[in-house]
Structures are given as C-alpha cells and as structure tokens.
Design brief:
8 strands, eight-stranded antiparallel β-barrel, mainly beta, 189 residues
C-alpha cells in the first residue's frame, strides 16, 4: 500500500475523470470540493451552460513558465516503480506552446532514465485553468556512453492553476516491454 496526500489523490482523480470523458465538466462530491478549497487547491466547476473558450492569446510567461517541485509517481506494469520528489521545468515557446523538461526518472542505477524534453505542448486557457496537451511526442536521449534511446510520450495532459500543475502521461522508453504511466503534481517555486 502506498500513501498519497489527500490533495494529490483528488488532483489525480480529477485528471483521470477528465481523461476518460469527452465532456467539458467533471463531477466531484461536495466533500472533495471542500477539501480542495481547504487545501488551497482551486478547481473550476463548470455550469452546464458554460462553454469552453480559447484565450490562448492572453497567456503570459508568468502563468506557466518556471520550475515546479512536487511528487512524481511512476507506474510500470500496474505496480508503483517510484514515488519521488522531483522538479519539472516549463519554458514558454509561444502564446500557444510550451516545452517541458522532465528530470531523470528512477532512483539510480541501470533502471534510471536520463532527463528529457517534451516539446511543442499545446496550451489553451479556459476560465481559470491553463491546459496543456500533446497526443504523441517522440524524442531521442543520448546516453553517457554515446548510445541513443528513443522515447515516446503519449496522452500528456497538464493543468496549470495558480502556482500548481498536475500532469499525467504515458511513456515508452527504448526497448522496454511495458508502458510507464507517470503523474506529477507540483507547486511553482
């Protein structure tokens, strides 16, 4: 059994519900909503009549750019592989695009994946959240021994709100037989 802070669980639950549903709304209980507010986590609850708007032309660097430190959970083959404090970096490329630098994944040794980039994440603003997503991104990591390994990131969703970010994505690295499911919840420094 693993322990998550209640705020982490609620963010992950919200992201998971958002990924499963094509709808623009997410339903959470009154208790979950109050817990999020109490913990200082803000979440938008959309009325059925509200429409999602793209305000990407009003985005500014200080809304997404920076270093976010928090908890990263990596699931491999339905088992938790690591649960560590990490720092993710975001740089703004344009009004509608950001790049993300992911720190090394793992706890050292042969199973460690070096730091890597995910470029061209599309961002949109909707009410108080900024949402980032990319369906698929493929890159190459150069190892210390001059070897290279490809990685594929898929189904990445990032939600920025105030000074927080919640991210989920899948990753296939090199010849690994399993896809890694990664979640990260962090606060901007």
């Amino acid at each position: 059994m693993k322990t998550l802070r209640k705020s982490q669980y609620l963010w992950l639950k919200m992201l998971n519900e958002h990924r499963k549903s094509p709808e623009k709304t997410i339903t959470i209980s009154d208790e979950e909503y109050e817990e999020l507010i109490t913990l200082g986590k803000h979440i938008d609850i959309y009325n059925e009549t509200e429409e999602e708007h793209d305000y990407s032309d009003t985005l500014t660097n200080n809304q997404v750019e920076g270093s976010y430190t928090g908890n990263e959970v990596v699931i491999v083959n339905l088992e938790e592989s690591s649960n560590d404090t990490k720092t993710y970096e975001f740089t703004k490329v344009s009004d509608t695009s950001i790049n993300m630098t992911v720190p090394e994944i793992g706890t050292g040794g042969m199973m460690t994946i070096p730091s890597f980039q995910v470029n061209g994440i599309t961002i949109t603003k909707d009410v108080n959240n900024i949402k980032g997503n990319i369906t698929m991104y493929e890159g190459v990591i150069n190892g210390e021994d001059d070897s290279t390994k490809t990685y594929v990131i898929s189904d990445l969703i990032a939600i920025f709100n105030d000074n927080m970010v919640a991210i989920t994505y899948s990753m296939r690295y090199g010849n690994m037989p399993f896809v890694m499911k990664i979640t990260f919840i962090g606060t901007r420094k």
